[in-house]
Design a protein that fits this description.
Length: about 200
């Protein structure tokens, strides 16, 4: 062992909490997938968009929410996630994550295993889904965000053209310690309590 460098033992390692990032273009179904995944894993859900709005962090630059806005948002995500992760529960975070630094910064701030999943579907499907939800952002926004999200690779690609449960099962099966384990169910009151925090 090198002088001045503390030796890590298994007692020093954090419990088995996992940070799971679900990223992808506008309208692809990130929030639906992330909430169902959190419920399936008996975990917690955190929304990047909700934090941007709650703390008024949204600043625009060159037609996009700025990189700095998302890096500031990461601090709030970490603040919410760390106590949950330290208890051993998983945290599922969803957002566009169209800045590569946002992904690396968030995962770098978390001293627990982090897994990034990128939902994939044709831009036309994202536009269609966006047009059929309550709060539509429009075709131009959907195309712009799609282009930004697919401009770099991050994490494990997941086919989001499939039914919701198939997507969730695909992600769950790729997480360490969950392959071959049946999905856990929680009571409706536990789910409501978790939703109120995210």
């Amino acid at each position: 062992m090198a002088a001045g460098r503390p030796r890590r033992t298994t007692n020093d390692l954090p419990p088995a909490g996992q940070l799971i990032v679900v990223r992808g273009p506008l309208g692809i179904g990130k929030t639906t997938v992330a909430k169902r995944l959190a419920r399936t894993l008996a975990g917690w859900y955190v929304s990047v968009d909700a934090i941007l709005e709650e703390f008024d962090l949204e600043e625009w630059s060159a037609g996009y929410i700025s990189e700095g806005s998302f890096l500031r948002t990461n601090a709030f995500v970490v603040e919410r996630a760390l106590p949950i992760l330290s208890s051993g529960a998983p945290v599922v975070v969803d957002g566009n994550f169209y800045w590569e630094t946002q992904v690396s910064d968030l995962c770098g701030r978390i001293p627990y295993p982090s897994f990034v999943f990128t939902l994939r579907a044709p831009v036309e499907l994202c536009i269609f889904r966006d047009a059929h939800r309550t709060r539509s952002f429009g075709e131009e926004a959907a195309r712009a965000v799609f282009a930004k999200v697919v401009s770099f690779e991050a994490g494990i690609p997941v086919d989001a053209t499939r039914p919701l449960l198939a997507i969730v099962e695909d992600i769950r099966s790729r997480l360490p310690g969950t392959a071959g384990v049946r999905s856990r169910r929680t009571t409706s009151s536990a789910v409501r309590a978790r939703r109120s925090r995210g």
